[in-house]
Amino acid sequence: MNQARILIKALQIKGAIAALAGALISLVFFSFHEAAGIIIGGAIGILNFIILIRFVYSIINPESGGGKGVIIFQYTFKLILFLFIFFAIIKWQFANILTVLVGFTIILIILAYEGLQQAKS
Asked: pTM for this one?
């Protein structure tokens, strides 16, 4: 779990910096809706991978958490929550959905980079 904590910490710090930098660039060249979308996408990406790492750890180390039913319920709840968030973004249009995906992709790229860095060491 020590490597997972290092990965989560690096993802949080570098992901937040990259998402905020992308949002600032978007705010300068585009509008508030695009900047908000990048920030929302980055936050969803960071939250998603933190939850995913914890779920994988609880599956690998069963004595750390509840049974498989609890894990399945929590993962289903996470998916329904993210579905509701995306539905709200699309319905009320307070952010551009494409920039939400850009923010999420920024986090995905940083996660891949940090994973490769840890695999090398």
From this structure: 0.84
